[in-house]
Amino acid sequence: MEKKNIDWANLGFGYVPTDKRFVANYKDGKWDEGALSSDATVAISECAGVLQYSQSCFEGMKAYTTEDGHIVTFRPDLNGERMENSCKRLEMPVFPKEKFVDAIVKTIEANAAWVPPYGSGATLYIRPFMFATGPVIGVKPADEYQFRVFATPVGPYFKGGVKPLTLCVSDFDRAAPHGTGHIKAGLNYAMSLHAIVTAHAEGFDENMYLDAATRTKVEETGGANFLFVTKDNKVVTPKSNTILPSITRRSLLTVAKDYLGLEVEERTVYFDEVKDFAECGLCGTAAVISPVGKIVDHGKEICFPSGMKDMGPVITKLRDTLTGIQMGRVEAPKGWLKVIK
Ligand code: PLP
Ligand code: COI
Q: What angle, rounded to 10 degrees, do the helices at 247-254 and 76-89 form?
């Protein structure tokens, strides 16, 4: 199979339409079989639930070419499970996780020529999503939905690649107590847009959100969870029921414990203790692990000892081991890699 003629090494994190996408529709109380389609557009009612009341959710995952030339994806069952939870919370019909994994496999297979070659620095980003297509005008769940999966080749999420980032402590909240912060609802991202545009305009790469109720605890950023490393090499990550349960973060805790022999702690992290950590990173499918060099809290700077030039040593080892697993250089725990071909 011949790969597409793309300058893989210089791809940013953007949308490039690929050959095929998977489309399934929900009508009269059931999902149809779904099929691959060449049509990258969607035509829906002007009154569709997604357009009126933002009834939509999504997932993010990647396909990789391994060192020995296979195409794999990473823990798709967990994305399927998380999407089930998003659907339940948004009163959308569940797309069963077994069918979800099957749709992911079909989409990657059909776009194999778009999976960046091993060592290119790029990956194929997979975007499964669901939205309400049925018309609603009173505030209620729609009767009809579409589930879709497209793929797009991507490079690094943050401009400039893997360089330490500067974050600001946001004055905006991302998620309310008992709200939707723990699911991957499109509405969480819509309300974060003003905050990220403001942060960028002020020269920051991302926002650090604190808990909305007390503004004393570290939550996450707009698109990634936090990992901290203590001065004695313990890996610490915030525990909160208003952050997205990142699959990358859960995987990294296993990597830290079982591959690197590090102690790990998932617990409340107070903003006051952030200044005492040795390293900080953002983790997610898009972010992988991106190092954080500095956090600015209303003019007060917290500079991590790892500095603004390089990634700290523990974050580096975590990143190398995780990407090693994803690219087949390091043996994966059982069930983590789904081989597509
Ligand atoms: N937090 C938020 C708000 C996200 O959007 C994402 C991206 O999916 C993550 C965390 C990381 O999650 P995952 O590692 O499952 O991609
Ligand atoms: C991902 O990491 O897959 C996400 O969905 C985050 C988004 C900000 C791109």
A: 140
